[in-house]
């Protein structure tokens, strides 16, 4: 049972345009949602996060939107740059119980930004 | 944020042998996690490494196959035992440095190939 899903395996965008990466979840017991970026041969690096009580968080070129009723979040990158080309993972943090603090990851979306 | 040094970065091993992966954190972390990323797949949590006690394993993972040690708050090891080609994956450790959504740092990963 995949609790966090990224249904688009890949996304191709022109430099300067907006990249929108999507993520859906099924479990309401998450308190934070995080986005990670991963280059080959490196570990994931934290990008941006959002609390479950917020609907938007912005950090420079990166904005994350959360729609709790739809159990959907998205990461917007604008303007996109070739250096943004990487695999992007959506992750959700368990709010409590025996799973407290554990992250559940989506499958990842490969973003390619063309010059 | 904390920096995690993970080694080895890659290895090619014979089936039936074991490999121990090490993660060293440059500061004390409250929680450490071990993940597996099979080709084209998401990061799957193997276990939570607990300092001074046995690790807590996720469904589908057992201590005999993936023994974990955590002798102190800055170090942990994962052993992949009696390896088969199905164990070929990237293995990642992660540390949670404290409260807040920013506190998850990852090692650079170990790419394991079992032949």
Please characterize this protein's 3D structure:
The complex is a heterodimer of chains A (115) and B (115). Chain A is an all-beta fold and 115 residues long. Chain A contains no helices and eleven strands. In chain A, strands 2, 4, 5, 9, 10 and 11 form a six-stranded mixed beta sheet that branches. In chain A, strand 7 (62-67) and strand 8 form a beta hairpin. Chain A is globular, with a radius of gyration of 14 Å. In chain A, 36% of the residues are buried. The model of chain A has no long low-confidence stretch (mean pLDDT 93). Chain B is mostly beta strands. Helix content of chain B is 0%, strand content 50%. Chain B has strands at residues 4-7, 10-13, 19-25, 31-37, 43-49, 56-57, 68-72, 75-80, 89-96, 104-106, 110-114. In chain B, the strands form two sheets. In chain B, strands 2, 4, 5, 6, 9, 10 and 11 form a seven-stranded mixed beta sheet that branches. Chain B has a four-stranded antiparallel beta sheet with strand order 1-3-8-7, with no helix packed on it. Chain B starts with a strand and ends with a strand. The interface between A and B is medium-sized, with 23 and 25 residues.
The succession of helices and strands of chain B, N to C, reads EEEEEEEEEEE
N-to-C SSE string of chain A, H for helix and E for strand: EEEEEEEEEEE
Shape of chain A: globular
Largest interface pair: A-B, 23 and 25 residues
The percent of residues in helical segments of chain A reads: under 10%
Distance between the termini of chain A: 38 Å
The helix-and-strand class of chain B reads mainly beta
Strand content of chain B: over 45%
Number of helical regions of chain A: 0
Strand content of chain A: over 45%
Globular, elongated, flat, extended or rod-shaped: what is the shape of chain B? globular
Q: Say how many strands of chain B there are.
A: 11
Sheet of most strands of chain A: 6 strands, mixed
Unreliable runs of chain B: none
- Average pLDDT confidence of chain B is 92
């Amino acid at each position: 049972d995949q609790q966090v899903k990224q249904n688009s395996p890949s996304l191709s965008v022109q430099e300067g345009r907006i990249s929108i990466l999507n993520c859906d979840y099924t479990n309401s017991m998450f308190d934070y949602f995080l986005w990670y970026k991963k280059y080959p041969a490196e570990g994931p690096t934290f990008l941006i996060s959002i609390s479950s009580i917020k609907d938007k968080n912005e950090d420079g070129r990166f904005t994350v939107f959360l729609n709790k009723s739809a159990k959907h979040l998205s990461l917007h990158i604008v303007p996109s740059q070739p250096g943004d080309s990487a695999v992007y993972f959506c992750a959700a943090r368990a709010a409590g119980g025996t799973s407290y603090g554990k992250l559940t990851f989506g499958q990842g979306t490969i973003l390619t930004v063309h010059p | 944020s904390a920096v995690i040094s993970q080694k080895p970065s890659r290895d090619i091993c014979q089936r039936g042998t074991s490999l121990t992966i090490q993660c060293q954190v440059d500061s004390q972390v409250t929680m450490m996690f071990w993940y597996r990323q099979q080709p084209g797949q998401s990061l799957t949590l193997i276990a939570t490494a607990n300092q001074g006690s046995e690790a807590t394993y996720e469904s589908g993972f057992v201590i005999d196959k993936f023994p974990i040690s955590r002798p102190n708050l800055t170090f942990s090891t994962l052993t992949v035992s009696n390896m088969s080609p199905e164990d070929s994956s990237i293995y990642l450790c992660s540390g949670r440095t404290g409260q807040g959504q920013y506190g998850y740092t990852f090692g650079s990963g170990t790419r394991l190939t079992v032949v």
